[in-house]
Amino acid sequence: MTAFRMLLVVLWVIILGYTVTVIANHGMGLLDVFFGDMAAMGWPGQFNLDFTSLLTLSALWVAWRHQFSAPGLVLGLLAFFGGGLFLTAYLFIVSIQGKGDMKEVLMGKARAAM
Q: What would the pLDDT profile of 73-92 be if each residue is shown by its tens digit?
């Protein structure tokens, strides 16, 4: 579990640093570029579509883990729009809350207790 948590921290720092650098150099115009690449029907657009499917699955998993409660739906939206930056922090926190029990990390406390 320690190695997993260390990986999450390393990924979070890398993503944060990269994001800050891109924003500093290019501004906040992500959506125009993101959807423009998809509309162009090239490899960058294919990657963006694939990534969007992963964001969707991540958001659904987070919301499901919280039994689609109001906080779970908010966390799901954060997962969708926050991407890897959100998910690495979320997994780090729930791994601590679950005391390393992967059943609880993956399913949530209520489902893991069943």
A: 999 999 999 999 999 999 99
At how many degrees (to 10) do helices 2-26 and 70-97 cross?
A: 130
- CA 31 to CA 37: how far, in whole Å? 10
Question: Which residues touch 100 (CB under 8 Å, ≥6 apart)?
Answer: 1
Lowest mean pLDDT among 24-33, 57-66, 72-81, 86-95: 24-33
Task: State the number of CA atoms in the 13 A half-sphere of 114 facing the CB.
Answer: 4
* Residues 33, 2: Cα–Cα separation, whole Å: 37
Domain that holds residue 9: 2-112
Contact 88, 15 (CB under 8 A): yes
How many independent structural domains does the chain possess?
1
Residue 94, helix vs strand vs coil: helix
Give the integer Cα–Cα distance in Å for 45 and 90. 27
CA angle 80, 96, 91 (to 5 degrees): 20
